[in-house]
Structure formats: structure tokens, C-alpha cells
């Protein structure tokens, strides 16, 4: 396991929760999630350990669309990487959380890279960049999409692809009469601030990006990538393929 970026254990909320679940599986374990746009929510920790058959259809389809050498970005507890390994893919699990990396190693993920996506070295090239569970959220804001596409271009092999799912958060602004009320003078409505806590331990606040398909297509084309919608979910979510334009 390659290890570089360090997160203090006290701030490694998801990693600590996954460690606990691996030691003693308990479906009552949950991570509290605060955001600036909705009520406090929870992530059941067992959901991060789900097998392929329990994954949402968009995730299952994304995994089936993988090809060649795969970089699983934001790999979490390693559920996607493990399934790809079982299908004989050469997959590397990229994760910034030291706790999650430890959990993946114990679960049998072979290739683990503990690093921030934006700090990756360029010596490794991939055929597929996999970004599930709204993995493009790591970009944080639309202003950073240019940096994202620049990094993707550096680490993709010729003909490579990015598989990404995301959601259009406009449903949060639905009015009783069916209209959508969004203040266009504010920042993009899909730019969210989050903070997680687990067993009284609070992490840092961090930006997270949910991006609608039309805006992602616009930024992809602006940065030299083609956008292809592969599938749509039941609740304003979608799966897309991004490939470098030639």
C-alpha cells in the first residue's frame, strides 16, 4: 500500500467508523452528516460494506462499464474495488482516509493508494477512472472542475474513460405548486458544505459538489472532454461517461 497524505485519526470520521464495523459488524452504527442545505442525515456504516447485489443499479452498471486498468477514486471501504478484483480487473483503490485504507487492506484489496486525487503523481496511467457515490464531489466547487479535468487528462491512457454518477439537487428547491425556486445570484446550488461526526467525534467542514448533467456536459466540453449519459436513476441522479475529445 502506497501511503502519502496523512489525516489525523481524530478527523478520520469515515475511517474510524469503518474500522469499528470491520471489528464488530453492527447495523446500528451510523455516521451523522450535517450540511448547509438540508437537515442532518445519517450514513449507515454497513452500507459502505455492501456487496454488488445490494448496490444501486447505477453503481452496478458503472462497474460493468469498467475496462482495462481501473482507478477507483474515493474507494471507501473497498466494496467496488473488491468486486472488480473478483472480475480479474487490475484495480487500484485511491482513498485519502488512513482508516479506510487499513480496512481495505484487511478486506483483501490488493492495490491501495492513500493520497489526494489532486496530488497524484503522473507515472501511473489508467483506462478507467471510477467515481461512484457522487465521487466527483471531491472537486468541491465548479471553479475547480478545470483542475479536475487537467489531472484526469494526465493520468488517463489514450482512449480512457471517466465513469461518474451524480445528482441534480434541484429537487431540494421544489415548491408546493411544482415550481423550482433557485436564487441564480447565489453560488451554484449543487455546491454543498458538509461536516461528519461519529460517536461524538467531529470532522472538518468540507465542500462537496453535486452537478447536474447539463452543467457537467458544459464543463466537460469546455475542457476538451466528451459527455455521454449512460443511465438515469429514479431521483434526479445519472451515470455518465467522459472521454477526451480527439
From TrEMBL:
Domain of life: Bacteria
Pfam families found in the cross-reference section: Methyltransf_25
Matching CDD domains: AdoMet_MTases
InterPro entries associated with the record: Methyltransf_25, SAM-dependent_MTases_sf
Keyword entries, A-Z: Methyltransferase, Transferase
Domain annotation Methyltransferase: ranges: 70-160
GO terms, molecular function: methyltransferase activity
BP GO terms, sorted: methylation
Name of the molecule in the record: 2-polyprenyl-3-methyl-5-hydroxy-6-metoxy-1, 4-benzoquinol methylase
Organism: Marinilabilia salmonicolor
